[in-house]
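Justification of resources, computational component.

The compute hours requested in this renewal are based largely on the per-chain cost of generating structure records like the one below. Each record pairs the submitted sequence with a full structure-token output. That output is archived, and it is also reused by downstream analysis tasks.
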Amino acid sequence: MYAIVEIAGHQFKVEKDQKVFVNRLAVEEGKQVDFDNVLLLADGSNVTVGAPAIDGAQVSAKVLKHLKGDKVIVFKKKRRKGYRVKNGHRQALSEIVIENIVASGAKPAKKAEKAAPKKEAKAEAPKAAAKKSTGKADDLKKIEGIGPKIAETLVEAGIATYADLAKAKPAKISEIIEGVRGNHVPDTWPKQAQLAADGKWDELKELQDKLDGGVEK
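The structure output for this chain reads:
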């Protein structure tokens, strides 16, 4: 017998005693976890397809260990901007072993199979902060080193204008964008933002010509 089951946002074809690597589960090593989003069951020539899941079907597994996957290199470059960023990423994984596949009559599983990335949890703190900005939002992407995701994160934390960014400390900015993947150095962002807030665009351009990804060359 085998089943196709959804685990932590991905679909897997599993059989009893099979070991599977899945996105990190919020379950301690050695503990059992159940998955009831079973999409298909096959027992010999008998095949049952869910709509979308099969009622009462369940896959039980045991968490063997938590680990990290192989490193993946991500390289970004902007033409004629002198912008180059190289980052490495290792996916947080859990190794599980399939212990049992039940076709019907299983109790609903607890929603414990969702991944629990630590960085995203930390990033919620600054997002929950009260919005301090009172002016109209500025295009923070005009600051060298700030992309769309960082701009969105800063706005959610209450830094929506050049004036807000100019008053922020680099250490505080680093804390706010901690959950955004990449190697970001905000040391020059307040200085750039102050020039933008003052309307000194020529001076800002001269400064940015000396920067590489927001960092002085």
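Residues 118-127 form the longest helix (10 residues). The chain has six helices and twelve strands.
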